Input
Amino acid sequence: MQCPTAMTGTPSIRALLEQARRDLATESARLDAEVLLAACLGKPRSYLHTWPERSIDQRELECFAQLLRRRARGEPVAHLTGEREFWSLPLAVTPDTLVPRPETETLVELALEKLPPESSLRVADLGTGSGAIALAIATERPRCEVIATDISEPALRVARQNAERLGLDNVRFIAGDWCESLPAGRFDAILSNPPYVAERDPHLDTGDVRFEPCRALAAGPEGMAALRQIARCAHIHLYEGGWLIMEHGYDQGAKVRLLLQAGGYVAISSHKDYAGLDRVTLGRYERQA
Ligand code: GLN
Output
């Protein structure tokens, strides 16, 4: 193997990363710069640490400069590289989908607790986006049938492509609003990470979320519109004893628990994400006598 050598007059990987970290000046600047440079070099991030003295050629330099400019404007790193890892699965993401977030893995963990490993159950993921939740469940529970819905056709195209790339054949994608397009027959679990930010939340005008699809983020004046709609329709599609598991904002746990109580759910509980914030609420549907 020929080792990459330093060329005179062109910057080294180390020098470039140092400069980019200073220029970006964000919390995640170091990581962002590494991910973007690795993408331009077509190498894994570990390569940058193995060959810090390697020089960068003109084409690579231009690629990096362009991605850094876009990152400085706020475009999410996942949109710039076209990929984000979720549940250790490499997922394609585009501006048509929400960028999968680590806190959503909390929902996957809770769902897996309710789905025994060798079970052949039916699971739905409402508003699947890039397919993150559906694909994580389909990978962990190969005998389960997973139905994933989204109102956005472009998002479903991304999700389908992700399922194909991962070679998963136990997930079906269907276009439609929340429960509207769910096929006949009942489900053992209905999962969702719906939009839950308040429509006028100033958070929507700052940082990376400006580049994500608004309807995947915001729902109604208090961010409760989609959560409420799902709580209203899910029970029609759940078996007796089936679980509804929803992600929500850090301050929406109490409201979601009330929704589930009013909807005839029992064993209701809220759970914290890795940052210690209330993030997921679940309940078991019991038909009234
Ligand atoms: N957690 C995301 C945010 O605050 C929102 C995700 C969602 O609405 N489902 O940016």
Remarks:
- The radius of gyration is 21 Å.
- The pocket of glutamine is lined by residues 101, 193, 195-197, 209, 217, 247 (CB under 6 Å).
- Strands lie at 83-86, 89-92, 122-126, 145-150, 171-175, 187-192, 238-247, 265-272, 278-285.
